[in-house]
Amino acid sequence: MSEHSRPDSGYAGFEQGPIRPPSEAASLLLRVTRNCPWNRCSFCPVYKGEQFSLRPVDHVLRDIDSVHRYVTALRERMDLSGPIDYRQLSQLADGLSDGEQLALYAARAWLDDGMQSIFLQDANSLVIKPDELATILRHIRELFPEVERITSYARSQTIDRISAEQMGQLAEAGLNRIHIGMESGSDAVLEKVQKGCDRQMHIRAGQKVKAAGMELSEYVMPGLGGRALSREHALQTADALNRIDADFIRLRSLAIPNHTELFSEWQEGQFDKLGDREVAEEILLFLDSLGGIHSRVQSDHILNLFQEIEGHLPQDQPLMTGVIRRFLALPEEEQLVYQVGRRMGLFARLEDLQHGMRRRRAERAIEQYGVTPENVDQVIDELMKRFI
Fold this sequence. Notes:
It is a single chain. By secondary structure, the chain is an alpha/beta fold. It is built from 15 helices and ten strands. It has an eight-stranded mixed sheet. Strands 2-3 form a two-stranded antiparallel ribbon. Helix 1 crosses helix 3 (about 100-110). The longest helix has 25 residues, at about 55-80. The chain is globular and about 60 Å long. The chain starts with about 25 loop residues before the first strand and ends with a helix.
């Protein structure tokens, strides 16, 4: 069906949701569903108070048509008159509806980023019927055959209900990477934070994605078990991932924004939050416990203390664990400087402690705000909330 023959059916224009994985920064964001169908995780602030809904497939197809139309128009204009600056882009947007303007700007940004990948939003696009998702995927492939990767968030609970045959059909239609928020492989932790799935469900879902021929990115949340479940969280999560052999294991250290259920539990003494050093020790135990797999480990988020933890298993395991061992071996005062400098965005690696100008800025902040080894974790908690 062409864009001109699509019925209106209440279409309000191109949409984009609020979040995407850091690794999808260059992706075109296409909104398939709104918000999160589960929305009960005690640590997550993103969709609280928002109602989940499915966008009609026809609306998503029209979004794809809009982006294609603007990509085509922008390419033609650039072929004739060269690069388009943002003043000219604003002129092109003048008079368009809000949705059309959003589609135009999304097309321009995606064109600038190389048009290599598309991310389907919001929190769990696989919750729609598989044949409907396949229709969306095929339309993307028809209009943008050059796209290398189409990806989506998905919940293990949802994937567990989709048959292996249907997953294979989605892969054939063009879906080739899934992002799953495992968070933990411990049943005790998963139950405590109301994740809505258990360890075995995580394992089955991850194995099903891999069997379908898709890339799998699993997210782990160091610190989520608190002090009581820290060791179990590290060991059980590593064991679950050893059974899956995901393409990517991505670390997302726990931060607790004020308006979450977990924050209330923390304030009431029902959750004993780990400090930075304890989280470092938990990550070290986790990494040491990974084995027999070939995953790529990444610590690609501003919340993480160790951005430089990155590598392929098993060959880079000693390098990754060595980062944490070097940090834990530092004098307490040096750990303090690194913690504050990292959360201020000054440091990306331990070696940045030797960068004179950045180090002096971190030291001035420590002095200005009275940061000590005794209160540094409280200061870090407030700094981390800026990035959630």
